[in-house]
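fyi for ur records
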Amino acid sequence: MMNLSAAAAVHARGLTVHRGDRAVLRGVDFSVPPGRITGLLGPSGCGKSTLMRAVVGTQARVTGALDVLGRTAGDPALRARIGYVTQAPSVYDDLTVRQNLDYFAAVLDPGRARRTARREAVDRAITDVDLASHTGSLAGRLSGGQRSRVSLAVALLGAPELLVLDEPTVGLDPVLRRDLWALFHRIAADRAATILVSSHVMDEAERCHQLLLMREGEVLAQDTPEALRTRTHTETVEAAFLHLVDEANAHQGTPR
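which gave:
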């Protein structure tokens, strides 16, 4: 297991979140290394979205310690340093791609004197997500993959140091998923950004530099895909995950 580091982009100790009487996250410890793609993998309902909302500072009833980019999660100073993409594309269907980005750029930086800088930020975001040929298209008429790209472009407008992507490839076909993952790697490399991306599709784990494997509100393991396969003597991350689940069940005395 990788060592937790105070220099990490995100560092959690005993992170717990309650919803009603139920603990959605139970004393979770984890670390997200800077400048890398960390995959948050696990079945639907295991707490991935809750963990991500805690990281971006929008989750209620959070206890434990959670540091993000050197500050406590939720600190107002972090707002401009984090880009967050939810599962549902956060764009206006009746606006074009460029109009969506112009609007959100103005919201992020409303100063009139910075119009040129905003325009440059919009142009760069459009180029980064490869939508230059669709700038005049209405968002509501785009494909699912293209709409996901627009949401990602919005998140990139402020040149965030940390991108938090909640199941950005859900419902997309294999070709679109492949293209988006290539885009994530390009963003991480070109912008030196840290990316925390969740998925319940285990084959996407192989595309990440680091992994957090979750189950039932807990982190089963955190390491590189190769190290997890080696540790569990398996050939795929999915097999490694199932091995760790069986191991945890056996340790707890739970029947398989």
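The radius of gyration is 19 Å. thats all i got for now
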